[in-house]
Amino acid sequence: MRRLAREAGPPALFVTALVLAWELWARRSQSRNPVLPAPSKIWRAFLDTAHLLPDHLAATLTATALGVGVGVVAGVLSAVIVSSWPLARRVLQPLLVVSQTVPVQVLAPLLVLWAGFGLAPKIIVVALVVFFPVAVSTAGGLQGVDPELVELVRSFGAGRAVLLRMVMIPAALPGLFSGLRISLTYAVAGAVIGETIGAQRGLGLYLSRSQRAFRYDQVFVGVIVIALLSVALFSLVSVLAHVFCPWQRRSDRST
After folding, report:
1. Architecture of domain 52-254
2. Most exposed: 1, 88, 155, 219, by fewest CB within 10 Å?
3. pTM, entire model
């Protein structure tokens, strides 16, 4: 409990002081700046629309989960190909970089025109957001395998399957989870951007309706829910990395 108080106490105090200062400032300048509502008004808006949020949250989570799955599979396969064949690396690496040069805000309307207003364009947007960090981080892990370790395992008569299970996958997992940590912070935002273009449900639709109604308190509710969802997904990946990479945990502890 003492350690928890030392670690969580200062951030909690800082956030509390920040919210109180925000409340006081918003109350004094509400007539001059209605765009920034007070935290108490945001809380009332949350209570008024709490019955709507689970349905929107489920739609955004569905698009995010499916898009992350597609992006991870495509990123890992690309990393294996790029790491295994030098020619594929020279051909695919520029394409990986080019795939990230087009902003999601520009790409989302085109995907809606091509794939319709269903779930498909949201999945594609999230997959594109997840794909590049996962591919680059996993490829870095695969290319960073110690060649002497590979030769040592082969000297004991290990085949390709054993080499993959004992050396290559453990070497790639930390990079994979690092890429997931980076990409998941943007994956929810990608799904929300896709939902603002065209959707029947989702946090993006909730935000766009609140903006059109000039309900800035509800806009802040949506932003806070999206931020909390991103933090929860980031924490989930950290837990998975903690479970599936115990050697990394021991290395960090010794360091």
Report:
1. Orthogonal Bundle (1.10)
2. 1
3. 0.77
Tokens of 146: 């110690």
Q: What pLDDT, on the 0 to 100 scale, is given for residue 92?
A: 73
For 25-56, the pLDDT digits (tens) are 887 776 566 677 888 888 898 998 888 889 98
pLDDT interval class at 213 (50, 70, 90): confident
Range 199-203, long-range pairs (CB < 8 A, 24+ positions): 199/59, 199/117, 199/122, 200/59, 200/117, 201/55, 201/56, 201/58, 201/59, 202/56, 202/59, 202/60, 202/63, 202/122, 203/56, 203/57, 203/59, 203/60
